[in-house]
Amino acid sequence: MTTSLVNELNTLATEKNSVEVLKTIAEKFQGKIVFTTSFGYEDQVITDLIFKNDIDIKVATLDTGRLFKETYKVYSQTLDQYKKPIQAYYPDMDGLEKMVTIKGPYSFYNSVENRKECCTLRKVVPLNRALEGIECWITGIRAEQSPNRQGMTFFELDEQRQIIKYNPLLPWSLEEVIKYVKENNVPYNVLHDKGFVSIGCEPCTRAIQPGDDFRAGRWWWEDNSKKECGLHSHN
Ligand code: SF4
User: Fold this and answer.
1) Taking the CB of residue 17, how many other CB atoms lie within 10 A of it?
2) Which end of the chain is more exposed for a tag (fewer CB within 10 A), N or C?
């Protein structure tokens, strides 16, 4: 992966619309491109763009085993609506069995280390499997979600993973995302109607108030500075 390729793709992203860019990179990275969804508003827009336009990009999800029933519902509705496969990745079962046997099912509330251990087993290890052999990873990141996402570009080099990341919704506002979902009849997680913005695992996510930080509803018992789960280095 080179910086010049990232620059070339960023130029493309400023000249073409998201569907055209997705089609181009689907060809360029054929068989080595994945979009990972957690079925939130943003991810549902990208899923719609890929599936409705029949673009050859693998769609995958990490099922941590601790998701909301509402998330499984929109997961199921998405399969019904588009009739396309979504590859499921499950946690590191050996590690998970050991962790829960020794520490119980709510160890993540006791320390940051325990929380990171759980996120590693349930999210990072399966993500690493989902990204094996992948050269381009599509995400639903938007710039307005946090201050440290504002300097990002459509295409970025994830140096640690040596993967190119594409963030097609980077400049979109939340209002634009919601408008797209409503106008295109895209299935969405009903928890968004109840004040949930960033929806992850059920024990670690809660609703927020208007004006709160985007991540305020995640791991609310921890210091802001420690809130990352290892999926995105810009978290
Ligand atoms: Fe575990 Fe919570 Fe992380 Fe989900 S968000 S993997 S339940 S610590």
Assistant:
1) 10
2) N
| Residue-level pLDDT, tens digit, the chain, 235 residues | 678 999 999 999 999 999 999 999 999 999 999 999 999 999 999 999 999 999 999 999 999 999 999 999 999 999 999 999 999 999 999 999 999 999 999 999 999 999 999 999 999 999 999 999 999 999 999 988 777 777 889 999 999 999 999 999 999 999 999 999 999 999 999 999 999 988 999 999 988 887 777 777 888 888 766 666 667 654 4
Q: Are strands 87-89 and 58-62 parallel, antiparallel or unpaired?
A: parallel
Distance 108 CA to ligand 1 centre (A): 7
Catalytic-residue membership of 118: no
Expressed in angstroms and rounded, the spacing between residue 66 Cα and the centre of ligand 1 is: 7
Unique residue bearing structure tokens 């919704």? 169
Domain boundaries, given as residue ranges, for the chain: 3-191
User: Could you tell me the CATH superfamily of domain 3-191?
Assistant: HUPs (3.40.50.620)
Residue identifier of the C-alpha nearest atom 3 of ligand 1: 119
Q: Which residue do the tokens 């509705």 mark?
A: 77
